[in-house]
Amino acid sequence: MNRRQAGRDDSVTALAPPWAPAVAVAVLALGGFLTAMVWHATQLNPFDSWVLRWQELAYHRGHRVAAVISDTVLPVAVLTAVAGAAAAWLAGRWDALVLALVAVPSTLCVKTVLKQLIHRQWPGGPELLYPSGHLALATAAALVAVLVVRVVRTSSHVRRLVTWLAGGYVLVIAGARLVEEVHSLTDLLGGIATGLLVTLGVALGITAWGGRGSRGHL
């Protein structure tokens, strides 16, 4: 390998961004705090009870629209995984390809295990609520999109657009789930934390295993 080629390789962007470890630690701390709040709870805490007042008002005005919005999560997550994998393959980035294919299914598995362990329920209800699966999947898909476009050859304008759309989609899904009165706010925050932590963990693991982003080429 000549010096010029080595220079090009060194400039390849690593899959996990520099801020990923710090954000993962912060999200882990937040998730631990939320888990302690809702562990095996069958009653709403004062914070969730306060938010529920708004939820009850919004439900009568928009629960049908909110249900339609919520139903987009699984198709969007699948589409994001497929599109992300295709973009990564075309760019020759195996690390981004693995992330696109692994992050969403991993988030789904972790969410299922956490629901059983934490066992949070509405008063008198059988459903396990924490963390919100919809928010976990939406967040994982959003972060996959952001990380993939970050390492493939796209313009800064496209990267900003994807980031804003991804973040906006997560917020819209959170609002829809609140309006439907399916979850309390802490369930949604737990879902976001789960999606972030799993996806960042996968990205960090892939980056560490590959050594550097420059080794992430197909």
Keywords, please?
mainly alpha, 76% helix
Fold and architecture overview:
With 218 residues, this protein is mostly helical. It has one domain (19-38, 45-215). 76% of the residues lie in helices and 0% in strands. The protein is built from 8 helices and no strands. It has helices spanning 3-10, 20-38, 46-70, 73-91, 94-118, 133-151, 156-179, 185-210. The longest helix has 26 residues, at 185-210. The two termini are 17 Å apart. Mean pLDDT is 90; it is low at 1-10.
Please sum up the structure shown.
By secondary structure, the chain is mainly alpha-helical.
Per DSSP, what share of the residues sits in E-state strands of 2 or more residues? Answer: under 5%
**How would you state the average pLDDT, rounded?**
90
Into which percent range does the helicity of residues fall? over 70%
**What does the radius of gyration come to?**
19 Å
Note the topology:
Blueprint: H1 3-10, H2 20-38, H3 46-70, H4 73-91, H5 94-118, H6 133-151, H7 156-179, H8 185-210
